[in-house]
């Protein structure tokens, strides 16, 4: 008899585990529980902070998750308990951080887009999140901006401007979600979390919806340590979980 392969499935949150910015559906929680019954460990990998992750997937699931990598693994929980932590200000230093924030504030001030709200720049432990419209817009305004940006490419142009101002030697820029992009130290994308688990598993699956170059799931999706699954929504995720882990999949 062969020893059981150690397998973990990691999931992005928005549009992968949950509809964008909404809470998790019952069917997804059930599928994850069943996955556990089949011996597959479960992890969450999100650019969001822990508070936002808990809002979307619920406290219970975070307690149950073998790993919750919030802010791409810069603040990590194991089975709901503190595991590890790192910060962007220690890595970059205050002067570089200030240069980045000052440039972005000026750029946003000069930006001509249909509407602006508030909270344009959010400082997180491991990244700076920048939103041209402002994070405290309504859900409707958020949806409208996402549509608008598909052709206006406001975020793409902003990222290019930041790249030429700040350079790319020690910074990475990543467009994700509907209204913002993230700036973080190079290598601190979602693949950052893999260092904590690569030795403990024979197989690391990753599920995400922004897997193409420039998307915030790309690096971990393309990483040779993972088996990547690109999904378009939570239903898609459910379908692949079923095929892969539950119905006559490779673990049966
Ligand atoms: Mg996503």
UniProtKB/TrEMBL annotation:
Record keywords, A-Z: Cytoplasm, Isomerase, Magnesium, Metal-binding
So, what pathway does this thing act in? Nucleotide-sugar biosynthesis; GDP-alpha-D-mannose biosynthesis; alpha-D-mannose 1-phosphate from D-fructose 6-phosphate: step 2/2
Q: Which organism is it from?
A: Stylonychia lemnae
Name of the gene this protein is made from: Contig16713.g17807
Catalytic site positions: 12 (nucleophile), 14 (proton donor/acceptor)
Q: Which residues bind Mg(2+)?
A: 12, 14, 209, 221, 223, 226
Top enzyme class, one word, equals isomerase
Task: State the source organism's domain of life.
Answer: Eukaryota
GO cellular component terms given for this protein: cytosol
Quote the protein name from its UniProt record. Phosphomannomutase
């Amino acid at each position: 008899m062969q020893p059981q392969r150690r397998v973990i499935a990691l999931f992005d949150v928005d549009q992968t585990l949950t509809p964008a910015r909404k809470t998790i559906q019952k069917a997804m929680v059930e599928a994850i529980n069943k996955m556990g019954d089949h011996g597959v460990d479960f992890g969450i990998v999100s650019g969001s902070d822990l508070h936002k992750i808990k809002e979307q997937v619920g406290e219970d699931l975070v307690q149950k998750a073998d790993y919750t990598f919030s802010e791409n693994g810069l603040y990590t929980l194991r089975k709901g308990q503190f595991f590890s932590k790192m910060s962007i200000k220690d890595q970059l230093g205050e002067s570089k951080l200030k240069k980045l924030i000052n440039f972005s504030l000026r750029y946003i001030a000069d930006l001509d887009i249909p509407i602006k709200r508030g909270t344009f720049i959010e400082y997180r432990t491991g990244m700076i999140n920048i939103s041209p419209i402002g994070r405290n817009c309504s859900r409707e305004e958020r949806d409208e901006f996402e549509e608008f940006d598909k052709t206006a490419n406001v975020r793409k142009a902003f990222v290019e401007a930041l790249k030429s101002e700040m350079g790319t030697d020690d910074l990475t820029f990543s467009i994700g979600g509907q209204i913002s992009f993230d700036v973080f130290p190079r290598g601190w994308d979602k693949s950052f979390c893999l260092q904590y688990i690569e030795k403990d598993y024979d197989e690391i699956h990753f599920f995400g919806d922004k897997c193409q170059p420039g998307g915030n799931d790309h690096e971990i999706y393309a990483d040779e340590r993972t088996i990547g699954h690109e999904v378009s929504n939570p239903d898609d995720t459910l379908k692949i979980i079923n095929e892969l882990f539950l119905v006559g999949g490779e673990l049966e």
